Every structure is written in structure tokens, then in C-alpha cells.
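job 3f2a | input accepted
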Amino acid sequence: MTISLTRRLHCPSPARHRATQVGGSKCGGRRSTRISHRFKELAAEARLPVIRFHAARHIAATPALRAKVDTKIVSEQLSHSTTRITEDLYQHVSVQMQIGAAETVVALLPERKERKTKA
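job 3f2a | predicted structure (119 res):
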């Protein structure tokens, strides 16, 4: 969707700067406003609650990361230039995932035999 929007809005270099174009720093002002406006129109037509375009990205990314979709894939879907950006933005998901990962590792450890203590 992002590439077709940037092409329609005549933004430079859609493949290299997709995220910044939608955010407005490359296309700027009116063009990024058009994207948000069109997004609101489509939501209204579909009888969905109207939310900010950026919130929709968050809503899509959070469950994907919770479902353990690889960060690289989510990062590419969001057009982030690095996985670090995705990780930084969705750190709250990462904390929950880290707890789950720790529990998985602990479950793999062999049980320790209890030592007899001297009385």
C-alpha cells in the first residue's frame, strides 16, 4: 500500500524512503495529510472506527510480534530501515516476549536434585 500511495502522490524514490514519506518528512505537509484523510475515508466507508493512520500500523505490528513473527519481517512490512527501529518502537511487546523466552529456556533446563543439608 505504501509504495502505491507514494507513486500516486509523486514522492521521490518510493523504494528507499517509504516510511519517511508516509510520515511526511520526504513528501511533507499536504501529501501526508492526503494519506491520512484517505485512510479516514476508507475506514468510514468500511464502518470501522476512525483512528490515526500511524495507530493502524501499531495495531498491525503489535499482534504480529506477540505471535512471534520475526522482527525482520515486521520491520520490512512497516518499511523501517532497520529492525532496531521496530524493536525500539515496540519495546513493550519485547518485554512480554522476553519473559516468555526466559520461561521457555527455564523449562528446558534439567531439574536440580535437592541437596541434603547437614543438620
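job 3f2a | Residues 91-108 form the longest helix (18 residues).
job 3f2a | closed
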